Each structure stands twice: as structure tokens, then as C-alpha cells.
Amino acid sequence: MEKNLEHQIDESEKLGMQIVKESEDDRLMTLSVGPQHPGSGHFRFTIKVDGDYVVHCDPDPGYVHRGEEKMCEYRNFIQNIPHLERPVIHDSANITYSYSLAVEELVGIQVPRRGQFIRAIASELDRQIYTLYWLAIYGIFLGHSTMFMWPTGDRELFIDLMDALSGARVTHAFNIPGGVRNDIPDGFKDKCLRHISYFEKRLKEYEDIFYTNPLFIQRTEGVGILTKEDAIGLGVTGSVLRASGVPYDIRKAEPYDVYNEIDFKVQYMKSGDSLARAYVPLLDMKESCHIMRQLLDKMPESGEVRAKLQPTPKGPPGEAYRRVESGRGALGYYIVSDGSPKPYRVKISVGSFRNMIALPHLLVGSKLADMPSVYWSLNYWPVEADR
Amino acid sequence: MATYPQRFRFGNFVASIIWLILWILIIVSLVGLPLIFIILFYLPLPPVNGEVLTPYLFLSMMVDPTRTLPILHFIIHTDLFKVAVFPGFSFAALLAAVTIFVERKFLAKMQLRIGPLYCGKIEGILQLLADGLKLIAKEIIIPSGADKPIFWAAPIAFVATAAAVVALIPVAPGWVAADVNVGIIAVFAILGFFPLIALLFSWASNSKYPFIGGLRALHQMIAFEIPFFLSALSVVILSGSLNLTDIAKAQHPYWYIFFLPISAFVFFISSLAELERIPFDLPEAESEIVAGWLTETSGMIFGLIQLGSYVKVYALSALFVVLFLGGWAGPQIFPKELAHGPTAGLMGLLTLQGVYNGVTVNAIFWFTVKTLGIIMLMLLPRGISPRIRIDILLHTGWYKLIVLTFINMFIALALIYGGILGPGGLLTAH
Amino acid sequence: MIKAIESGSKHLVIKRFTLRYPEQKLKFIGDGYQFDPKRGVGIAGSRGRHILFHDKCTGCQLCAIACEGIAEAIGMVKVDEQWKHNKKSIMPQIDFGKCVFCGLCVDACPFYALYMTNDYELSSFTKEHLIYTPAQLAIKPKYDGNVELKIDNMGATHG
Description:
The complex is a heterotrimer of chains A (387), B (430) and C (159). Chain A is an alpha+beta fold. Chain A has 16 helices and eight strands.
């Protein structure tokens, strides 16, 4: 029996694989927080636990890998949109926004102004939808079932708006290289303003029951502290970076489309623990409501929303790299084109995958009970990270 | 593959019910009744009104109104009835079932949604029945390498222990399944079994997540047993007796919660911890350790543990009512008797002569109302708080709550020695 | 902690948010997603089941070509009808088991023949029933949703 196991380990090591061995030390216990776990989403990581303290963490992404980047090479630029929005189904206006910007740079299209405003409104709505879902799951990871139900219900306000705007509740297929696919329907602006003002009242309720709850604060304060130098060194992005004291938001640092005309503040907190990482998305949501109001005000009354394009656009050979601030962080596309209607190579750089590197760094040395609060506060969306 | 469901036809429905009744009658009369007679041949039968009670006499007596009521009276006061039906297991199980349903609807209302809606015509009343039938029909999977005798015995021991606690609690004066003179100590001795059962079951599951969950259950329950016991101790000091019926009777003019609010608070928190309810549900923390020590349960084993858990909810809140809220004390809103003077015949049957006791019914009513109120209060933290972490839990249990109980004990002692309560005091009834 | 209890108890009196689905259905603004090939922009609407206008479809296969890269849900089949503008007598047949309801086929049609409607209740008991022939696609579905999200002082409800 022993000999067989040794032989198997040798064979697999020759092939380049590594088997996680049960260590000789009796104190350590290996737990596989795998995909079949209510606390992990579609993601597996293996932790070694000594009593109540985690001593080793080994993330293992790839459970939902679908080969998005390879699939892009077989479809032309417009046909890529429906499958590229599938990694994050409800935040699809952001993941296709970046793609559209990169393709417009390659092909050389100028998007009309009203189209840019509508794209920004859709992006902000989707950011709210994603952040509310993230908050709901954060609540349930900590055992707070009410905090699961309330954001999921309030998300309906925004999903209703996106349904009226784009025609589908999730996976909107709304952005397209060249603008947006349709103009806004009647009565949208009033409905949007009504929903936003109701939502701002609901944010106060969230603070009352969740963010100022002493049990929640006990569980997340001082847990998983990510210092500013570590955050910049590890390369995390998005709300994780802003919670460690770095006021960096791509909408302010490299403004795209109409964001240089909108006046908003970058929300950040200095402490860098789980509480700050849970608080920054709430502040982001408040800021997002503010941004949406300005966008609705400043939008030109009429105009084109989509640039005229041939059905299969193609451009001169070249490359383009554009970034967008999505719910998780910096979402960048690097597209190489060789002059044909299909791209030659699409590389998607996703915020979740970058944040994953902080997980072993933060978990080692913390307690087992802190595992959900640290893991999910890194704003990790497993499906998007695996693309 | 789904098949097309057939349209509902009322005639077929009535026919199926009649078939069911027919089969039940056949089985009962061909198999059940002979079995009963054979068993009764060997059991000694009690005499009623001077005659030995045989089944034929029983059936004939049920038809004669003058003789029905004494039989009913006799049956109600036997020990078997008290254990199995009234203040015993069936009552507790019924309240537990109602608690599960009310909990789901109550939480749903707080979370702005509707709870179970589609089972049963009125807002999902039959949901519990549907869940129970589903659990009975599921396959029970036992992990390989699990310790089979303990795996099967632990859930049954869980329900049995919870029912044992229920048996000690007085619902009305004279209505206790087991009137023990050291009632409180017996309750705490039985409650001490639960961590043992949790640990045995988690060890027998032979898997890592139940192991962690079982250890957490052990730590949690043991840590909170001490404040639990100490807060009840203040009540014992004030009432001067360990018998639960005497404690309930001693709260006659004023309930103890007015004198010992801190103790009531500590008792409440400790009972939330003993019951493994949110915020103290670490042993079953879903997001960290799958389902804790309940991970490997499936089917009826899970059903039994849920039943035991909710019977424990009823038992501990009934204990709270007896210790702090005066048991069954309340204004008499039921008439003392339904008819004045002895009546005979049909009027006697209708006014339940000899069986109806106004004081008892009143006591049962108030006890149930108070227990349901405390159960609702126990459901509230589930909608409000997240789960607590184990080191904060142990810190709270071992340091803060014990300090609070000691403060409270000093208050109780001061009340007694100051002559306010206790024998010969200002506020005692007698 | 008191604020949390207050907030939780306040919600016991706010109206419930859920939509009781089979009895209440959501109302949609407009008629469904449509595309105007002359202006090159779509008209906002809900993307549900397609509707094919037989008196406009010319059998040019542009919708099938658009879908080939996405979901391969449209196949062209021969129909029995004789139309002047449809020489080959072929029309699209949509397999809703594969369709992702993106609407790019509607964008591709240059003859105002393919639109989308509000109907999303397309479930069936077999996979074969999900393939809608051109004759089935021509029927305009009746969808009577009448409930929308209402916000007032007592909370938001569907009603």
C-alpha cells in the first residue's frame, strides 16, 4: 500500500504535477474548501489548519474555465459580445464596455455623445447590481440571512431598470463596438430617479443592521490587514486597493468616455482590514448614485446612440489596450488584430484574478473562522477569474 | 422526464379517500383488534367504577354519556397521557412544529419576502408536512468508516434527551409528567448530555468538517452551561425551593423578572447558545464548515435532529417562563365551571362535568401564551445578527456572563436579607 | 446593537417585496425589441420570443449567419407558402433550447421581418417542442402582465 502510493507520487511528479501530501506532523489538518462547499463559490482552495489557525493556503482556480479568450478568435468583433459577457452575467455592461473601447480604438470609430452617456449609465447600474449581489453573499457568509435577502431584493430595482433599458435582466448584450444597441425608452429617466432615491434610503437601513452591528464589527475589524505597501506590491485592484489607503480609481486616473465631465470623489479608507474592504463598496454605491444623477442630467436630449458600422467591422492590423473600472477592479482588454474581421488574440485581464494573489498572503496566520470574511472581502468572482 | 399531470377530478378524489378508509378499517379490525385483545389478556386492567375495564366495556361506555366522562377523567390523569400527550411529547412536538413554520414566516416578513406559500391553500400551512414527508422518503447515507451504532443512536438520544427536559416542566398546577423535588438540578443534569451527544456524533461521522463542528459545539455548550446554572441559582435563592412547581407558585404577586432582570437576560443569552441558534450557531456554521457536526446527516436522521432541536427550543423557553415569568400565573379569564351544580345526562356530557377545570384551563392558556411569546423573542436575533466567532464567544461566556450572574446573585441575596422577599417578607403573598 | 433591533423590527411593518409569480406578472413597456435598419439603431423593448413577419421575410439568411457565431440556433427550412419576395421559400426556424436571446439576429435583418416580443414563458416538456417552426413564429403571443414595481412610504412592492 505504501509502495503503491510512493510510486504514484513519483509518476505524477515526473509529469509535473504535485500532490498535496498529508504532512507527517500530526497537528496539521488539510481541509479542502472546494467547489462543493457553501462557503466558496466555484473555486477551490486548500488550507492547512493547525488547531484554529491557518498555516498554509493554496488557491486552485480553474473550475469554471471555459476558454473565453480562445473562443474570441473564431468570431468576429460583434459576434464576440454575447459570449464575452458570460463571465459576469449581471455586470455585463462593464465587461463588454472595455472590449468595445478597445475595438473602437482598433477600428477607428467615434462613438456619438449620447451613446457615451447611455453606456456610462448602464455601467453604473451594473456596478450597483454587482455590488449588491456581492454584499448579499458577504452577509450570508457571515451567517446574516437578512443581509442576504435585503440586497437581493433591492437589486431588483436596478435589474428592472436594466430590463427596461436593454431588454434583458442579466447578460444584457447592450454595449457594442460603436455605441449601444438601442436608445432609452420613454419614462426611463423618472423611473431611474425614483428608484435611486428609494435606494439611498435603503442604504441607511443596511448601515443600521449590518455595518454598525457590534457582532459584525467584532468579526471583521483587524482581520486580514493588507497594508498599503503590500497592496501596491501584490498588484490588487478595485475596492481592495482603495480600502488599503490608495485612492486609485480608473474613472478618475484615466478617464474614458464622459467620465472627465462628471464630478465625483474617489472613496477610500485607510485601515485595510476586512471591515474597510466591506465598507468601501457601500461608499462606492453611494457615490455611484450621485454619478448616475449627474449623468441623467447632463445627457444630451437627442442624438445618435450608435455609430454606423459595416456588419463585420475590421480595421488595420494593430493592437489596443483599454481599461475600465468594473465592480471588481480594473478590467482590461488587450486585443491584437491582423486586419481580418476576427481578432487575432484577445487577452482579458480581470480584477478578480489579480486579487486572488492576496488570499494566501492574508489567510496565513488568521483563524479558520475568518476564512469567509477574508476570502469574500477580496471581491473575488470565481467565474470571471477563470474566464 | 416529466409526464403530463392528470386533471383533478373530484369523483376520483372522493373514491380514493373511501378506498383509504376501507383499507384502514379492514386492517384495524382484522389485525389490530385481535392484537389488542391478545395483549390485554396479559396486562392487568384497572377497575373503573367498580368494574374491570375490558375493551367491550370501554366501547360501550363511550356511547353512554353518564359513563364517558369518568373514563375521560381517568385517562387524562394517567401517567401515560401525561408523558405522551399533554405536557409531554405530543404537546412539545406540536409546539415545535408550529415554531418551525412561524419562524419561517416571521423571518420572511422581516426580510421583506413571503415564506412558504404554495403548500396548502392558505399561505403555505402544509409546508411542514411536505418537508416531513420529504425527509422520511430520503435515503440515509452513512459514510464509510463511520461508527454505525453511534451514528444511528445519537439522533434518537438527542430527541430523547430533549423530551426528557420537557417531561420535567410544569404546565399547570399538578400537570407535570415527572414531579421531582430537585427539578432544577435534574434539568441541568439532563442538559449536560447534549454536548456529549454532539461530540459522539461528530466523531462517529469520520470526517473533518464534522470534527471541527463537534469540537466547537462542545466548547460552546460547556462554556454557556455555567452562566445558565448560576442565573437559575438566583431564582432558587429567592424562592427557596428546587421544585419547579413550587418556584412557579412562589411568584404569585410579582414575577421574578422584575427583581432579577439581569439574570433573565443572562439566562436568555445562554439558552440561545445552548440551542445553537443564530448568533451562536457556530457548530453549524454553513459558510465555514459546511454544516458542522450535522454534515453527514441526511433523511430522517436530519429530521430527528431538527425535531429534537426545536423541542429543545420549546423546553428552554418553557423553563424561562417557569423560572422568571411566573409559570401559569395570569388573570382568570375562563369560567371556573361551565354549569352550576351537578347535572346529569346529556347536559352533564356537554358541560364536561368532572373533566373541565377552569383553573387548569386558564393556567394552560397563560402558560402557552407566555411560552409562545418567549419563542418569538428567540426568533428575533436570527433576523438581526451575523454569526459570532469562537474566541469572542468563549470570552463572553466565561468572563462577562459569569460576572453578571454574580452581580445578580448579590441582588437576590440582598432582597432576601433586606426582608423584601422570602418567608415573612413584605412582598410575599402568604 | 439597539439600532439593529430597531431596524429589524421596523421591517415587520413594511410591505413585502416579492412578486407572486403565476398570479402576478410584470408589465413591460413597449412591444418588444425591434431594430430599424434604415437608422441602424434598435428600439428598446424586452427580448423574448421572436416574431417573424411572413409578408416581409425574403429568405436572405442573414439572421442565420449572424447566429452562427453565437448560438447556432437559427436554421433555414423550406416552407409551403408562396411569396413573391421569397423566391427560395425558406424561412428561419429557431431552436429556443440554444437561443441566448441576444437579439443580434434582429439587428441583422434588413427587411423589418424579425422582431422580438415580450413573451418569455417558453418552457415545454420535450426538447423537440422548443424548436419553433416559421408558422409558430408568426403568431403574436398574448402576454398580459399588469404588475409593476411601486414605491411609496410603506416600502416598495410589486402590485
